[in-house]
Automatic annotation (TrEMBL):
Identification of the protein by name: Phytocyanin domain-containing protein
Signal peptide as annotated in the record: 1-28
Domain of life where this protein originates: Eukaryota
GO molecular function, one term: electron transfer activity
Function, as annotated: May act as a carbohydrate transporter.
Family membership noted in the UniProt record: Belongs to the early nodulin-like (ENODL) family.
Phylogenetic lineage: Eukaryota, Viridiplantae, Streptophyta, Embryophyta, Tracheophyta
GO cellular component: plasma membrane
Amino acid sequence: MYMHKSMSSTTLVLCCSLVLVFVYGVSGTDHIVGANRGWNPGINYTLWSNNQTFYVGDLISFRYQKNQYNVFEVNQTGYDNCTTEGAVGNWSKGKDFILLNETKRYYFICGNGQCFNGMKVSVLVHPLPSPSSPGSASNHSSHKSVAPLTVESQLRSIMLSSALVWFGWNWI
């Protein structure tokens, strides 16, 4: 009987873990700046961004040579003048994921002088369409996709699952 109870607990834990992976592993669209050309000089990022639809919860990711370029989030003045003064964020890992969590216009530039060679992009983030309006919900689904689970979210889910199996539900 103890074995049966243990097996049903393990099954329940695994099912709940799968639900957690699904709930926490799903996010907005990941927009890779410049698509397969990445974050490099001489690319028309205005054209790229005009062909994208950004919603709150989406990610914008920059892929570039780590020691050659960087990314700064600036205001419109910084964008227009290619200056990083008053920047609200900066990244330099070469594979940077930035959450677009507000409805607003975001401005990004390369802060090492390459902004003058076109390494700047501005994106307008829209609110999520209301689920009550049928036209916008279907319209939104054509622009959204399920982002793949990140290694971090998979590891977090595995660790949580293991802890639940090892210690049981009583420790929560």
